[in-house]
Amino acid sequence: MAALAAAMSDSSRMKILCALMDGKAWTATELSAIAEVAASTTSSHLSRLLKANLVTCISQGRHRYFRLYDHRIASLLENMMGVTFQVNNSSRSKVPKELRQARTCYDHLAGEVAVKLYDSFVQNNWINKDGHNLTTLGKEKFLQLGISLENKTKRKVCCPCLDWSERQYHIGGNLGAALLNYFENKRWINRISGYREVVITKEGYEALSKHFLI
């Protein structure tokens, strides 16, 4: 734990990790701009993060891309944001409106809209009250919508993820990732390139109201 904390205990490395919370792969050059440090310094930071298994590197031709090691690191970062938000007594109004409404939490949706989705799933008995599994009704409903869940995975089907700005749960796990992909493919949402911000389209608002009653 001390070694992991030491690897994260640098503001530039935290900027890099937070940028990677959008779930996409970034180049060292892009991360250098985000961290506002020189390319050589960024390389050193990335080496430290790689050694700590906080990020992973993907080589494609001559290019190297970096992303978070897995969803567990994303969950750790989201929890840290929540603790920081609470400890600093930051008011909710200080959270940028765009991020507060909808954003990515690695590979699933977070923010006001995501919390409303979670509440809708519980109230309509699509997921268990503790948020850790789908009900029979939920499985049927998601299949009817065409939302398929990956079977060959050790990841939980679904799980509650504490939203750092709302202080309530949004849905994570396999279901959370499937929903984000589904919404994006249906063009119910638009992801802002290079940021965690997610924009709900007009069609998206109509569909969320129709299918999920939010």
Structure write-up:
49% of the residues lie in helices and 16% in strands. It has 214 residues and is an alpha+beta fold. It has a three-stranded antiparallel beta sheet. Helix 2 crosses helix 3 (28-35) and helix 3 packs across helix 4 (39-51). It is globular, with a radius of gyration of 18 Å. The termini are far apart. The model has no long low-confidence stretch (mean pLDDT 88).
Number of strands: 9
Dominant shape: globular
Structural Rg: 18 Å
Helix content: 40-55%
Coarse structural class: alpha+beta
Q: In percent, how much strand structure appears in the residues?
A: 15-25%
Order of helices and strands: HHEHHEEHHEEHHEEHEEH
The low-confidence parts are: none
Count of helices?
A: 10
Strand order of the largest sheet: 1-3-2
Q: Mean pLDDT score, rounded?
A: 88
Largest sheet: 3 strands, antiparallel
How far the N terminus sits from the C terminus, by CA atoms, comes to 40 Å
- Name the quaternary structure: single chain
List the helices and strands and how they pair.
Blueprint: H1 2-8, H2 11-19, E1 26-27, H3 28-35, H4 39-51, E2 55-60, E3 63-68, H5 71-87, H6 97-101, E4 103-105, E5 108-110, H7 112-123, H8 136-145, E6 159-162, E7 169-172, H9 173-185, E8 189-191, E9 198-200, H10 202-212
Antiparallel strand pairs: 1-3, 2-3, 4-5, 6-7, 8-9
Helix pairs in contact: 2-3, 3-4
